[in-house]
Amino acid sequence: MAVKTVLPFGPQHPVLPEPIQLRITLEDESIGQVLPALGYVHRGIEKAGEKNDYPLNVFLVERICGICSATHGLAYCLAIEKLLGIEPPPRANYLRVVWAELHRLHSHLLWLGLLADAFGFESLFMQIWRIRETVMDVLEQTAGNRVIISVCSIGGVRRDLSEQQIEQTMNALADCERQLKAILPAILEDYTVKKRTVGKGVLPTEKAIRLGVVGPTLRASGVAQDLRMTGYAAYGELGFEPVVEQAGDCYARAVVRARECFQTIDLIRRALERLPEGDIQTKPRGNPNGKAIVRVEAPRGELMYFVVGNGTKNLERMRVRTPTLANAPALLEMLPGAEFADVPVITLSIDPCISCTER
Amino acid sequence: MKLIDKARMKSPWVLHYNAGSCNGCDIEILSCLTPMYDLERFGIVNVGNPKHADVLLVTGPVTHRGARVLRNLYEQMPSPKAVVAVGTCACSGGVFRNCYNCLGGVDKVIPVDVYIPGCAAKPEAIIDGVLMAVERMSEHTPLKRGK
User: Fold this and answer.
1) Which listed CATH number (3.40.50.300, 1.10.287.80, 1.10.645.10, 3.30.420.40) goes with A45-347?
2) B114 bridge partner residues
3) How many of the other CB atoms lie within 10 Å of CB of A278?
4) Does B145 have pLDDT greater than 50?
5) Which residue among B22, B48, B122 places its CB closest to the CB of A14?
6) Are B57 and B16 in contact (CB under 8 A)?
7) ipTM entry
8) Which of A169, A278, A333, B50 has its Cα between 20 and 30 A from that of B66?
């Protein structure tokens, strides 16, 4: 007879960089029911967004999540620009793409490293994070900070790139691509890695669509949906094809993110090559009035901002819907029936970002 | 006892807890462990069990729900121990100071030995802070206090 055990996974666990608790009911070694307990990182940012002036909020929303902060800043700025009726100059749009994609690159590399760590391949984790440092150096060189770069401002960007910086970025990207090509066979073709990922946490296409999954998790289940296709900022001019895999398991999710790393490098290159001359900032005038919805593609999937202005300096409401919120129901469907040893890999495969979700 | 103290200074083990941070400082702590910065050359190892740890690295402004976990972790660590507040929000609450669910700093819950400012705190600063905490810890040991 199977013995039932309830196991608290988290909030403090070496695999989880963030506090979330999964109460897992085990029947011997396989998983019965999973209940998440949330609220460990809820700070009340949406409420704080109503107290601050609207230009100050850029700094606040960037700190919703440190890993995709550039995308949060971008989405908020797009929403406010919609309300104010201003357009950033073309050069600013291209620079926004450059920084958003650099952030995506470091986020995907970080995830690939954590995945390697989750199934116990520590040297691979170290190697991938060594490659990630190349990207972090570029961020520090161009934006002045490693993680929270604060480049987007309402009406444009805060920093410009010099010829020398563009050249250094190009060199660093080439270096990063070369190292990635050398290391990726170790994660994508290795026998033991495949044993731990192929067929684990399968999410079929219909189920993915029914649960409203977003981002790389959705694309790994065979749906070509990526909000960069809608062409916000300069994506419309750069030409963009989403990366799609069919299998819907942990391996497919790793492949999608690995291929997106190369795609991102290509996008940054194209944006830097076609970088138009001109201003980087349009002066914002007046106060936001009305409602605006903006959807952008964060490294983890669709990120939505809903902003209500009432003609004063303070916003009436700021609502954020983050990708992990959409992916969490899928995680709870993937876990039951799996082996307990696969919990870290399956949990990580949706790239959970709890500080985004709880804000 | 003296030998154990010496060993501890040579190889302090760290425990990391995210008390409501935005992940920025957490990934910088992880960066410290990777080949570019390589904390392990100082014998510093990241552990998951508070009972094995000497130094507690805390990030984030401490949320109401995270405070209980943080206090538990601190109480489970054996003495001598040191607490390092990593990042501006762990030091003072930072940008989240006026948020309704934040206590505004690690020192509202447990005593802090070293404060590392920065948003996010740089790996170099974190390494410096951990080593400073180890130094402080050595001053706290009963053996040295007697001298």
Assistant:
1) 1.10.645.10
2) B84
3) 9
4) no
5) B48
6) yes
7) 0.80
8) A333
Q: Report pLDDT digits (tens) over A75-99.
A: 999 999 888 888 889 889 899 999 9
Among candidates B40, B29, B44, B136, which has minimal Cα distance to B82? Answer: B136
Type of residue at A69: S
CA distance A163 to A13: 45
Q: Is B116 on the interface with A (CB under 8 A)?
A: no
Collect all residues with Cβ–Cβ distance below 8 Å to A273 and sequence separation of at least 6.
none
Computed on alpha carbons and rounded to an integer, the radius of gyration of chain A in Å comes to 21
What residue segments make up the domains of chain A, in order of their start? 1-42, 45-347
**Domains observed in chain B:** 2-140 (3.40.50.12280)
Q: Does B133 touch chain A (CB under 8 A)?
A: no
Tokens linked to A206:
């219909």
Angle, CA of A253, A254 and A259, to the nearest 5°: 100
Q: How far is CA A74 from the centre of its chain?
A: 13
Interface touch B66/A11, C-beta < 8 Å: yes
State the Cα angle at A279 between A241 and A234, rounded to 5°. Answer: 10
Alpha helices in A119-161 (DSSP H): 122-143
Please report which residue ranges of chain A form alpha helices under DSSP H: 45-51, 57-62, 69-84, 90-118, 122-143, 163-188, 191-197, 205-211, 215-219, 235-238, 250-273, 323-334, 343-349, 354-358
Q: Beta-strand (E) ranges in chain B?
A: 13-18, 45-47, 55-59, 82-86, 114-116
Q: What residue of B is the nearest CA neighbor of A145?
A: B120
Choose between A7 and A67: higher pLDDT: A67
A49: β partners: none
- Would you say the pTM of this structure is higher than 0.95? no
Nearest CA of chain B to the CA of A99: how many Å? Answer: 16
